[in-house]
Amino acid sequence: MKAKDQTANMNTASYNRIADKWDENRRKKPVDPCVEELAAMLPAGANVLDIGCGTGYPIDEYLSSMGFTVTGIDPADKMLKKAIGLGLPNARFFRTDLFGFETEERFDAAIAFDSIFHIPLERQRAIYRKVAGLLKGGAYFLFTHGRVTGSVQGTMYGEPFFYSALDGDTLKECLSEAGFKIIRFEEEYSDPVTGTRDLVVLAKRVFH
Fold first, then answer.
1. How far is CA 161 from CA 39, 64, 118, in A?
2. Structural domain span for residue 132
């Protein structure tokens, strides 16, 4: 098994083991303001892809309540079962990672909140072309990210997780090459309720 597959499998297994604790914690927090700001930019009835949707709360619950169509993808089946169990109208969920997700549909927006940093370093550059291919022209991509190129291992709820990221200049280059225009690039993002993030990015897929 390749190292990148081992890393992905370990993250998925860890999320399955912490699904209950994760869900309990997430239900205590509202949706992050940057997700609300994105929602305000979308047309009525927009279709939104949530990459690494986890248990579906609070992001997918919020998007559904706003009348959007939600497609959530996540490789961790126990997390996904909780998302399906929410019974959200106009929402569907698929057990897959980003690179395994194939569809003819094109989305008005994609969100990857605290998820793409689990993709192995050797696939980080490929993320943005993959996402661009899933979006309509003029669609938005909101995501959180690290700030330094490399990989680290950490723990959450006592379980091991791998994290990877690209530095800011490399990330900007990847977004440009994939046809995105950066709208927001905020380092050391902080919200008093939902916490801190190394980097929050909002990009728009330009028309070709």
1. 30, 29, 8
2. 3-205
- Among candidate residues 88, 93, 17, 89, the one with its CA nearest the CA of residue 53: 93
Q: Are 101 and 116 in contact (CB under 8 A)?
A: no
pTM over 0.85: yes
- Residue count of the chain: 208
| Mean pLDDT to the nearest integer, 164-178 | 97
Main-chain phi, psi angles of 105, to 5 degrees: -70, 150
Report residue 85 as tokens: 């169990």
What Å distances lie between residue 95 and 18, 53, 194, CA to CA? 17, 10, 26
Tally of CB atoms within 10 A around 118: 22
Do the Cβ atoms of 3 and 120 come closer than 8 Å?
yes
The owner of tokens 């200049």 is 169
- 171 confidence band (pLDDT: 50, 70, 90): very high
Instruction: Give the CATH number, domain containing residue 70.
Output: 3.40.50.150
CA dihedral 76, 77, 78, 83 (to 10 degrees): 90
Name the domain count of the chain.
1
